[in-house]
Amino acid sequence: MAGSSLLSPKLVKGAFIRLDVTGIGVTPQVIVFQYNSESITRKFKPYEKPQDKEGDKPDLNAKAAPYNPDEEFDLALELDATDALEEPESHPTAVLAGIADCIAAMEMLLYPVDDVGLLSSAISSLAGALGISGGTAPIPERRESPVVLLVWGPGRVVPVKITSFSVEEQAFNVALYPIRAKVTVGLKVLTDDFFKPIAEGAELSAAEKLAQSAYRYTLKQKKILAAANVANSIESALSMLPF
User: Residue 103 is inside which H or E element, if any?
Assistant: First the structure.
């Protein structure tokens, strides 16, 4: 039995990675899935040109596709603190809060980043303390959603926006923290066209550049796999042609 376990392949776990930009660069916050989702539903919606008004001339460029298709994911994640509770000395957080910490980390992916607001307040307070004119006026705060990557193996690393999030808490500890739950998440893949500078002449943040690179990396792999399939199917395709 020991030998067979050594020969069994190591399971790659999926994860969410939140990319936060700090004073030292991009700081990733990784949320590893305890158990991979048993199934993932993927949906595509190709670009559709807005319908012309009645009486307009026919569109001579109806095949135009200026943007990549929208892609969406639906996945369900199972969370369970049972294994951790069997070794309480090694998992004090699980003893106290069950799986509430993991759920909270996922929920925070929905909240806007407020580091800019905290920094603005700190700068304003410092300027006021130094007697600098205008120090009491707050710097305008611009709150944004965090940059999040879905990592599903080496072949799929894509920036995503969470479009839906629901939690079914199924069992609780004595303090009423959940110890078993099912999290259902809806995701929209963000193409590289989604990330644009906030003002003319501005640059993308380091996190946004990483998100663009992740999308392009995954798209490149998809093209390579598609090309491999075409190469394997050329002979079969030729045999189907009547000429």
Answer: helix 100-107
What single-letter DSSP state applies at residue 16?
Answer: E
Task: Report helix, strand and coil shares of the chain as percent, to nearest 5.
Answer: 35, 30, 40
Give me 114's structure tokens: 């407020």
pLDDT digits (tens, 9 = 90+) for 108-160: 999 988 654 444 444 455 455 555 554 444 444 557 889 999 999 999 999 99
3-state secondary structure of 232: helix
- The size of the chain, in residues, is 243
pTM of the shown model: 0.79
Find, among 187, 189, 233, 230, the residue nearest to 211 by Cα: 189
Cβ-contact 110, 31 below 8 angstroms:
no
Give every CB contact of residue 120 below 8 A, 6+ residues apart in sequence.
138, 139, 140, 141
Amino acid of residue 234: I
CA distance 150 to 218: 11
User: Hey, where are the domains in the chain?
Assistant: 11-44+66-111+146-227, 112-143
Spell 92-131 as b/e; 16+ CB within 10 A means b.
Answer: eebbebbbbebbeebeebeeebeebbeebeeebeebeeee
Report the 10 Å Cβ neighbour count for 38: 9
Closest to 111 in 3D by CA, of 162, 39, 184: 162
User: What CA–CA distance (Å, rounded) separates 216 from 149?
Assistant: 13
